[in-house]
Amino acid sequence: MSNKQVSLEEAARLVQDGQVISIGGTLCQRVPAAFVRELARQGRRDLELVKSSPGYDIDLLAAARCVRRVRSGIVSLEQPFGMAPNFRRAVEEGRLEVIENACPTVMASLQAASFGVPFQPVAGLEGSDIPAASGFAKLADPFTGKEVYVVPAIQPDWAIIHASEADSRGNARIYGSPVWDRLMSRAAKRCIITAERILPTDHFASQPELTVIPELFVEAVVLAPGGAWPTSSHPDYDVDEAAMWDYLARLRAADGVFGYLEETKGRDRSGVRVAA
């Protein structure tokens, strides 16, 4: 299909209960936040998130009871916002299972999936409790006989990524650091792109080396200017600190997430651009 552009609501409906997802960006940087909020509005349940460094995304999904398991190395909202309180509450209450990882082990599991192999060796775990906590195994190196830790391949059902620019076919550019988004797009079965701008394909054909995610990996594209808000999307806008503090204040109430989701619905579905 040459034209893959759909609405935010249609794209979110592609994700089904119980599926494994990876979400692009890192901590409070270029998170596909509008998509995350739409998943929560649609009441998705029993998702598993695989991501080295989730932040706003896992905090909101935990508050909305959308996730049952997370594999990550670090969870934080960064300075000055601190830890992710709704994520922590869900774990303490037993609603959310954490499969303890280090950031490199999550990346290695995704890389193994992208290579089509069942596992990948990982260095640097000696002396850590992470292998036992996560069920990692040791194998003998067939060339030297030395034992090495290996992590299993993880192939998410969906990678959901916010891009700076995309065309309607799914070619996407990410300005600034792509962090692990390129890897996620190759590891997952299919990819959903939300983008600040939708531009003609000729724009991408003129400099194909800037395309981080090519169309063959992509199932759906959403025009979502400001779609990373309240996290940043370099170079278009920085973290909205006032909105992040407001988010944290609103979600202190037991049912605060539902009011928050309702109040942000118009912004997300109309694609309101955040001022630079």
Report the mean per-residue pLDDT as an integer: 94
Question: Any guess at the CATH architecture?
Answer: 3-Layer(aba) Sandwich
Shape estimate: globular
The CATH fourth-level homologous superfamily: Glutaconate Coenzyme A-transferase
Unreliable residue stretches = none
Per DSSP, the total helix count is 11
Which structural class matches the secondary elements? alpha/beta
Annotated CATH topology: Glutaconate Coenzyme A-transferase
Q: Kindly provide the radius of gyration, computed on alpha-carbon positions and rounded to a whole number of angstroms.
A: 19 Å
SSE pattern, N- to C-terminal:
HEHEHEHEHEHEEEEHEHEHHH
Number of strands: 11
Biggest sheet descriptor: 8 strands, mixed
CATH level 1 name: Alpha Beta
Strand content: 15-25%
Approximate helicity band: 25-40%
* C-alpha end-to-end distance: 34 Å
Concise structural overview:
By secondary structure, the chain is an alpha/beta fold. The protein has helices at residues 8-12, 33-41, 56-63, 85-92, 103-115, 130-134, 181-187, 201-205, 241-250, 256-263, 265-270; strands at residues 20-23, 47-50, 67-72, 97-100, 119-122, 137-140, 147-152, 158-166, 172-173, 190-198, 218-223. Helix 4 (85-92) links the parallel strand 3 and strand 4.
